[in-house]
Hints:
The structure is a homodimer. The first copy, chain A, has 14 helices and 15 strands. The first copy, chain A, is of the alpha/beta class. Chain A is globular. The two termini of chain A are 35 Å apart. The model of chain A has no long low-confidence stretch (mean pLDDT 95). At the A-B interface, helix 1, helix 3, helix 4 and helix 8 of A face helix 1, helix 3, helix 4 and helix 8 of B.
Amino acid sequence: MKKNLSELAIWGNSPIFENQIPVGQINLPSWEYFCDSFHDLFERRYYTNHGVLTQEFEEKLCRLLGTRYALVMTNATIALSLACKGLNLPVGGKVIVPSFTFAATVQALSWAGLEPVFCDITHHSHLITPDTVAPLLDTPGVCAILGVHLWGNACDADGLTKLAKERDISIFFDAAHAIGCTHRGFSIGGFGSCEVFSFHGTKILTSTEGGCITTNDDDLAERLRNLRSSYGRRMTVPIPIAGYGRFSEAQAAFGLLSLEDFPKNCAANEKRMHLYVEGLRAVPGIRFLLPTPGERHNYQYVVLEIEEKEFGLSRDALVRILEAENVLVRRYFVPGMHRCVPYKTQFPQYMNTLPVTDALCEKVMQVPSGQRVTDGDITVICDLIRFVHTHAKKLKGALPKREEPQQ
Amino acid sequence: MKKNLSELAIWGNSPIFENQIPVGQINLPSWEYFCDSFHDLFERRYYTNHGVLTQEFEEKLCRLLGTRYALVMTNATIALSLACKGLNLPVGGKVIVPSFTFAATVQALSWAGLEPVFCDITHHSHLITPDTVAPLLDTPGVCAILGVHLWGNACDADGLTKLAKERDISIFFDAAHAIGCTHRGFSIGGFGSCEVFSFHGTKILTSTEGGCITTNDDDLAERLRNLRSSYGRRMTVPIPIAGYGRFSEAQAAFGLLSLEDFPKNCAANEKRMHLYVEGLRAVPGIRFLLPTPGERHNYQYVVLEIEEKEFGLSRDALVRILEAENVLVRRYFVPGMHRCVPYKTQFPQYMNTLPVTDALCEKVMQVPSGQRVTDGDITVICDLIRFVHTHAKKLKGALPKREEPQQ
């Protein structure tokens, strides 16, 4: 470990880690399994358009998630847009959605011709709640609520569904973070009209790129099957417009291997999370966003808030120091979606209506986890953060200036 | 070969081919190359978000197509939608586009918030021309022309570009069929503001799924790079809305291998095309859509028109007989896009304005080509088509009734 402040990499010294430690990297299966699986695929000479591996992957997802249907798609953004069309949300309609979410949640609405109604969250959970949603239900043109199970923790699905039913509007969830997680003992996947998962390369269950929509609604599933490719599925049911969300056999092959390793990868990440919690327990101004006790969780993200006053430095300053040491922590979400193009100019009315979101956007960060992050790495990262806290007073104001990228 | 009419599979007999011969199937590289390439990818542990293979694939595409930029995307449909946003086509704007095209051409416009203005084609080329486009330029709200280089033959890019310039509207092309083809000696890829290619599994150059946008316009290229993923590319230029069109390293690995085999695969398909032309030369009522003489071509599709009067049977009847024999020929386009949902109800004004399109939709079919179709297969398919022609009179009216799938 660095002994003196002057040894920090932020001043131009060598970083503590020779190689960059990204916050998310791919969880690979063994090469032997990978090679066997791709050889079979190759021999079949069938590479896309709902092949046998895709069907097998869908069946296994249904079993994991306890849903009647799991429809895999090119990626989760497209899956969200297709979900909007599957739910027959009208072009020009408005959807209540958190601003504190990955950009794609809101962009997917835009691509489906819908407008976001940005909703604040509670500090405690980082999630929208019936209380934060209720005042927005009177906005003219609201046709749906899109909840986000951020960091794998579930929204109050029952409370939100009750509100949606009362108003006769749709409710669905962005569950990109929440594969394998439960809410009140039930698997996420079966809440609302449908839920959308991501299998991006950095997700704990991955098909390199990819996503899926889960539902228990027979009619919606059939509409989604028709929406998934340009020609539909013989157009057995009416849909507003076909899309393009096909999943390749290469994605399915990878997804199936990832599914086999899923319990093992979750358990390893759980251990990593505990090491971080242990290592940073004594540091003032650090709060972990931990899984809800009693629920099953995937532990894919280690998320914490930095309270500048107690920690002694802002989250942004800490991030810069860690990045210089090759610890690629990531800030979330900078800025909130209501402050991003095109929304900040299209919908300026939300600029000062989301105080919790705005506050959290200054505090939240993710630290590296996943297959390549060793116990030793975590020990070093925790030591480094404690070291920064100890010397926070001296560091404050001494850091070189940095320009923010344009948003 | 079948000797008697009664031996045809359409009556329930065994098909002439034991296995189905699809009209398009994947052109695979050798397993050894594939395995080596994926092993390298695996070792790098980097699977998506503009990795090294993606960059290499883009560079090689630029060299093949002679364009300054080639931006690879998830698939060609998404590439077309992103192109619309890159060109800043306004939501609610109208785009002149042929109805005689793959569904995704038009659906991509819809997903970008644009309306199609359906344009007829000339019988000779199956393409829109300045003459078919000109009368539509006065439609209020027209902001662009989207030409389609159908079957790899180029639209009159110069004539159409002249029209677009006169009206100060955008022009771009769907070149999904046209990789490696030339127009007046220049590679398709550099016409209009941009062109969109497909690398779907059934394309002669394939990344299993995938597509790309080519352009020589620096600003447009930078906008497209920002449009390609949810967070853009640090948002270095203003864009209307980010999209999700990322290309995985697995797609790039496959694409690079396919690129190596591309000249070989084109040459093999050229030979297949000549075998079909030879084999069906003497049959009345069959017209081939051949590559324009003097141009380079990829020969990926063998397309023909069936004139019922001279051939003795309709295209649809011939298709059914061939399908029963496991020759999976395909009809194009059934029906034209102006007769498909949602366009037939949204824009009923085009119902009777596209006589050439409507006529061709009854006549055009594609016969199997590609890596798995042997010379012997083609001989048998040609024999079969000649046999059907010889007995057309007896067959007519004797075929069992079949229900059309709902469109």
